[in-house]
Specification:
homodimer, alpha+beta, BirA Bifunctional Protein, domain 2, YbaK protein, five-stranded mixed sheet, globular
Chain lengths: 571, 571
């Protein structure tokens, strides 16, 4: 491709509202343009990268024996009512009426459509297991679209769905997809972790993993062990428990009541009493499935609501506001504590490990000190109710500790079980002729989001470093002066030779100053740059590695072989 | 691919509402399934064919130096208001509101978005000409979706747009796309004609051609010369004129008034007077841009409203109803004729050529006979105002006559000129630094519609004949009995060998009777079939050509070479 005629406008400054580096760089380097909030056009460079991701995904899906189909964007909302998601999904589901006033949703995901399809097409165990996938544009009306392709309202996804005769079958389908995802992200050159996630939060009954690209801009938090390969998202990550017992032979002080007028928050307590947050027992009241419940964690910890839900086998949880607590006599809002509370009290392990702590006295303007869990708190409900923190022990191995990372969710595999097949009637006849419900899994990759993840992980202050597997072109060919006939002749010959060897080349044949060309080339981030300058006559060119900035002089006869070897080694 | 696990259910009967043969066959052979009216899922076989069409389109677009981009489906309707199409497009434009009550359209076409994009990205003649394309799902809320993929509401299109500095440039861009379209449809194996179409009907100022696949189900009529390569759609097709003069030395009879009570239509006249329709002068009243106009054609001809519009340089035309004609004293509805009509009268050439004719007398219950055009009709406005008919002379060559064909529109190229660039401000600075408006062309291919066209043209009573270039697989491998270990072993070995040579194979490894396998194979329509039966032990197989039904026995060692040659020869 010759740059002179390529639809490619680079920008020196990034638009003011682009916060994420990947968003800024893809705008500046001419990969994408915004049409509306969260809605983007892919310019030629962006479209090329997107197609490379699509191709890798397609190859790995085919290798995993998934079958490609293409389902419609327009989905009759009757299906969403049948599955029960019509109301649950909320305003993220974009809806419209056709000319006959029939309501359609723009597919944000295709569980309803695929389950109905398979229900109609497959009725025997002989046709199972089967995994179907598509690469398709999805729509989700995000409340706050941002970060460019990271959180868009129209985006490209690969979604796959597996159908099995039983849970063992699902297990195989699941891990087959899991491994395909590992290969896909590895081939894309992404630094990622597969992390355990919580199924309950999505309403499933089975296992689930998220594939996270590590990046500071990421909106998800990952807890990963420094020693073993344990990794989970913050919702799911278990806390490694050292010992339930506090140290023995410690003399216990008597409980004492402190006058703490208007001191309600952890911060106020810390400041007023000159103590550490870890010396406080923090008690928060929740409404869990219409029941009021107290949860106690250490003052420096965060309560994990998903863990509370899972412990209680409940579905809904909200923090109890003052009105909800009005009828309960033992409660003084702002001064709640576990001592003497006439309610279910869920106590986190780390609280049990405290020798003594400070907590609300359930009386306005008073706190207790010297509370000892074993002596003073009802320990009927002890469990893991908090988020892990940096330096927590690993729940799996004995050596490691937990580090927290930010991550971008780029993939998700999920054991759905019978959630949709039950509601939409996807049954099959087993070998005895008995009708059984299909066991489903679903698997998603944010194809367009992968671009953002790659750029977040691969850039410097001057621009992008595309991995070779996804780069819009392999080589950026820069004749320094297009007014120099010799340079142009040499560049044209090399251009044709590289292309005839299957190497993708962008040639900057613009009549621009060398500085402009170098700046644009850094910004665009093609992995290898070949500079044709004054030594063109002697057949000498400069070969530059965009990422390492390593430069070497090379004879023009050796260039094609050199690039071919680099390409071959990257596979 | 092994058929046992492929998502492929064939149907013995076609659903009752499938009228078109392509629709029936693609449903029965398991290529597509309907989700809602005009909204289809592509099953694995259908998706494979669709991807092959996409690939051919992409290769030819790239060869023509068009650059691939991807624009959003969601288009802010502000853009449609700017271009003036928001109201014009009508209910075919699907509209919705996002959570912030901002209105969006689901793109049925992308002139507004691309013109705005190019307006923002390109401001100099140096970056022109440029042609951009995308392959993307489009939405059009058809009043009456039908014929499967032929007239859907959600469908795949390739749309391209060219931007030039002047009309000469557009001419080059246009013919470059035209030639690419010829190559694309030829590679797809379609029997097509590129026909002249009328630009005025779409509001453009330039040339336009439609690419028509010849097929009886087609909703368009094409007039093509039997001798030269003239072809045009019915709206546009010119009538070849022999001579304006009627025969000389014919004795002219006097005009006579006939009492024809309640005889109003051509059919009634023909029956009552025992004459031919071609002896009648048919006069129809129109409102053209608020003016009442009479158009006279021969009784066996159809008036072409587009030609009337173009002759008058007008924009809107409707047939005048009785109310619209009430004020005009000289008119008696049902008995209108050209003689003595005090209005503009447009007379078709074929009327002028009549020696004598019968027409309404502009008086209730009366007609005239012996009307002679030269003597009795105001011939101020003589022109081509009718549709061509079979047997008309060719307007281009002296030998040919016109034949009419039905066609499916599969592509369209169109010189837009400045229609959108004017309204959306797409200007560039020319080499003198003066702002000029870009000259645009637009070019569309109905990618999913190509599938219907192919099947309409390539089938017999038993199923589809896919052309090799688009077939879901090249070879259908049929071991007759999967219970015969030897057959299965031979089939498996051949399967692997074919695949290792890049040949796409579907193996019917189902435990079904031979008759079922043959029936399904005929229905699906893979070009070559290899049958492995009782002679497998001796290494003999049967090789069948689906289209010709030609069968030959072949040694298994020769099969791979044979298929490879067939594949190579097809390119």
């Amino acid at each position: 491709m010759r740059q002179n005629k390529l639809l490619l406008t680079t920008l020196r400054e990034s638009p003011g509202d682009a916060e994420a580096m990947s968003h800024q760089l893809m705008l500046r380097a001419g990969f994408i343009r915004q049409l509306a909030a969260g809605v983007y056009t892919y310019l030629p460079l962006g479209r090329r990268v997107l197609r490379k991701v699509e191709q890798i995904v397609r190859e790995e899906m085919d290798l995993a024996h998934a079958q490609e189909i293409l389902m419609p964007t327009l989905q009759p909302t009757e299906l969403w009512k049948e599955s029960g998601r019509y109301d649950v999904y909320g305003p993220e589901l974009m809806r419209l009426y056709d000319r006959h006033d029939r309501e359609f949703a723009l597919g944000p995901t295709h569980e309803e459509v695929i389950t109905t399809l398979v229900h109609n097409e497959i009725n025997s165990y002989r046709k199972l297991p089967i995994t179907l996938y598509q690469i398709q544009t999805k729509f989700r009306d995000e409340r706050r679209p941002r970060y460019g392709l990271l959180r868009g309202r129209e985006f490209l996804m690969k979604d796959a769905y597996s159908f099995d005769v039983d849970w063992n079958g699902l297990d195989q389908s699941y891990w087959s997809m899991f491994k395909a995802y590992q290969r896909i992200f590895a081939r894309c050159g992404i630094n990622f972790r597969a992390v355990e996630a919580d199924a309950g939060a999505i309403g499933g009954e089975g296992e689930t993993h998220e594939f996270m690209a590590l990046a500071d801009i990421g909106e998800d938090t990952i807890a990963a062990c420094t020693s073993c390969d344990y990794a989970a998202n913050l919702e799911k990550a278990e806390v490694g428990i050292r010992s339930e017992k506090n140290e023995e032979n410690i003399k216990l002080d008597q409980i004492a009541k402190l006058y703490t007028p208007n001191i309600r928050t952890i911060d106020e307590l810390v400041e007023s009493l000159q103590i550490l947050p870890s010396e406080i027992m923090k008690t928060v009241m929740f409404i869990v499935d219409n029941q009021v419940v107290a949860v106690v964690v250490r003052g420096d910890h965060e309560i994990n609501e998903i863990k509370v839900l899972n412990y209680l086998g409940a579905k809904n949880i909200t923090i109890a506001n003052s009105e909800a607590l009005e009828g309960i006599s033992s409660i003084a809002v702002g001064f709640i504590g576990p001592y003497g509370l006439d309610l279910p009290v869920l106590v986190d392990h780390s609280v049990v490990q405290m020798n003594s702590g400070i907590a609300g006295a359930n009386e306005f303007d008073y706190h207790y000190q010297n509370l000892n869990p074993q002596r003073d708190i009802n320990l009927e409900h002890v469990g893991d109710f908090r988020n892990v923190t940096e330096q927590d022990s690993c729940p799996r191995c004995s050596e490691g500790i937990i580090n927290l990372h930010s991550g971008i969710e780029i993939g998700h595999v999920f054991k759905l079980g019978t959630k949709y097949s039950d509601k939409l009637g996807a049954k099959f006849l087993d070998s005895s002729g008995i009708a059984q419900t299909m066991i489903m899994g679903c698997y998603g990759i944010g194809v367009s989001r992968v671009l953002s993840a790659i750029v977040e992980q691969n850039h410097d202050e001057n621009g992008i470093h595309w991995p070779l597997s996804l780069a819009p072109f392999h080589v950026h060919l820069l004749p320094i002066s297009v007014k120099d006939d010799l340079q142009i002749q040499v560049a044209n010959e090399l251009y044709e030779r590289l292309i005839s060897h299957g190497i993708e080349v962008l040639m900057d044949d613009r009549d621009e100053r060398a500085g402009v060309k170098f700046k644009d080339s850094d910004l665009i981030g093609i992995p290898y740059r070949i500079i044709i300058g004054k030594d063109a006559g002697e057949g000498n060119i400069e070969f530059v590695n965009r990422r390492s900035q390593a430069k070497e002089m090379m004879h023009i006869q050796d260039v094609v072989e050199h690039v071919s070897v680099l390409l071959k080694n990257s596979h």
